[in-house]
Write a structure and sequence with these properties.
By secondary structure, the protein is an all-alpha fold. It is built from 15 helices and two strands.
Length: 471
């Protein structure tokens, strides 16, 4: 009998271990697959921006996007990941509320040298670090791609790369540490909630671009002497619309990576996924809400503009507008919010242009304005809903204790912080780059075209365009 009990116990232990391994491998695979899906965002931005440029600038826009992707990922590895773990409680206290942040924590897990190097390399015992880092690195690269479109056809490549590094490996990372981390002071002190990063990715990137635009200035020929604006049309609308649709596809990877899945060391809940704040979250919510938001945004933009560019931009704006509360909203909320977002993007972009700001693709409005809109709307519809949960080690399988509720005031404070974390670094770094003579392309080069002057390749056959074309 004792032998049978022992054998049964061993069998049960083996089954448990196998299930645990399977769960860990599934979770690791889940995050791993979110990374190539997010790469589609960058494929989309590449097509989108190249389509929105004139023929004479197509390849220069593409090179800029490729370099933003590459340099941001490298610098995020070198120091951006460290900032995310080191800075959540700044400027209030040294020790994190949950005890999972601070300089010592950052040194132990996010430095690519010293004792932390084992976690940043081929450590076979680590299932989480590499795929989590990869997902966050793609978030960082996305911020640079968002800002990129606003600046096309007149920014120097080196100057842009410097701005992209500051945005992707510092500015948005500070926003994430403060508002997208269980120790973040915006979360613990104000109940700030931004599940899908509408504020800390989109608004920060959009208003970083605005700060750069103040120093970069408009494209040659955009504004007349009386201040009126001329429409500068990209060379390929189908390419632009296709690129925007690819961004939407990549968004599914972006948002699935915002869920913390159950598993060994993966989630604060033993039996279900959570947001980064420990609040319950499921893929089912994403399945309903992303698709409804995309549809609502298209409908709203169509009502106002009938323009395919703004309709697809409305699709993106619709998703951004509800991203903060995808773990809170029902479908009816999503349809209303996304439709309104689609309706307001063109008027907001026109207003910005009326101030003399040349945002070539509407990035400041679509990402910046709509990002803040989404934060504030969540403060209205989600007020009073638990926004953060406390989890003790012995309660790992329980829901935990709700400690902070979402509020309009908390979302308003967060919106102000996100605006400042975008605009201020964007303005300062671009001002310094401008003073160094590395920001704006000279007017004669803009007139001739960046590709003929700076790129040792040709986008289209010679019969389509000559080097001196004004197309």
């Amino acid at each position: 009998m004792e032998d049978q009990i022992l054998a049964l116990t061993e069998q049960m232990a083996a089954v448990t271990n196998a299930a645990q391994v399977t769960n860990t491998m599934f979770t690791e695979t889940y995050y791993f697959l979110s990374i190539p899906l997010m790469v589609l965002i960058h494929a989309g931005f590449l097509l989108y921006e190249m389509g929105q440029t004139r023929v004479k600038n197509v390849l220069s826009s593409g090179i800029k996007n490729l370099l933003a992707f590459a340099f941001t990922i490298v610098t995020f590895y070198l120091f951006g990941w460290w900032f995310y773990w080191a800075l959540p409680t700044f400027p209030f206290e040294a020790a994190g509320w949950m005890g999972i942040s601070g300089v010592e924590v950052a040194n132990s897990m996010a430095l690519p040298w010293g004792d932390a190097a084992q976690r940043m390399g081929p450590n076979m015992g680590q299932h989480a670090d590499g795929v989590f880092w990869g997902a966050f690195a793609l978030f960082a690269a996305t911020t640079a791609s968002i800002a990129s479109g606003a600046l096309i056809e007149r920014i120097q490549t080196v100057g842009f790369v410097i701005c992209a590094i500051v945005l992707g490996s510092f500015a948005w990372v500070v926003a994430a540490a403060w508002g997208w981390h269980a120790d973040g002071w915006l979360v613990t002190k104000f109940g700030f909630h931004d599940f899908g990063a509408a504020g800390l990715v989109h608004a920060v990137a959009g208003f970083f671009a605005l700060g750069v635009l103040f120093n970069l200035g408009p494209r040659v020929g955009k504004f007349n002497a009386d201040g009126s604006a001329n429409q500068i049309v990209g060379h390929n609308m189908p390419l632009t619309v296709t690129g925007l649709m690819l961004i939407i596809v990549g968004f599914f990877g972006f948002l699935m990576a915002c869920i913390i899945l159950p598993g060994e060391g993966w989630s604060w809940l033993g039996d279900g996924g959570t947001t980064i704040y420990g609040t319950p979250m499921t893929l089912s919510a994403l399945g309903f809400n992303i698709v409804l938001a995309a549809a609502g945004g298209i409908i709203g933009a169509w009502i106002v503009t009938k323009d395919p560019f703004w309709m697809m931009s409305g699709c993106l704006a619709g998703i951004i507008s509800v991203a903060s509360g995808l773990d809170v909203y029902f479908g009816s909320h999503v349809i209303i919010i996304a439709t309104v977002a689609g309706m307001i993007i063109k008027p907001c972009a026109n207003w910005l242009e009326g101030l003399g700001i040349d945002d070539a693709v509407g990035a400041v409005t679509i990402h910046g304005t709509i990002g803040l809109f989404g934060l504030l709307v969540l403060g209205i519809f989600g007020s009073g809903i638990p926004g953060l949960y406390s989890f003790a080690a012995e309660k790992a399988a329980d829901l935990g204790e709700a400690t902070v509720a979402i509020s309009l005031w908390g979302q308003f404070v967060g919106a102000i912080v996100m605006f400042l974390l975008g605009f201020v670094p964007g303005y300062i770094v671009s001002w310094l780059v401008h003073k160094a003579g590395m920001l704006r392309v000279p007017e004669d080069v803009q007139i001739r075209g960046l590709d003929p002057v700076k790129v040792p390749a040709q986008a289209y056959p010679e019969a389509m365009v000559s080097p001196d074309s004004e197309a």
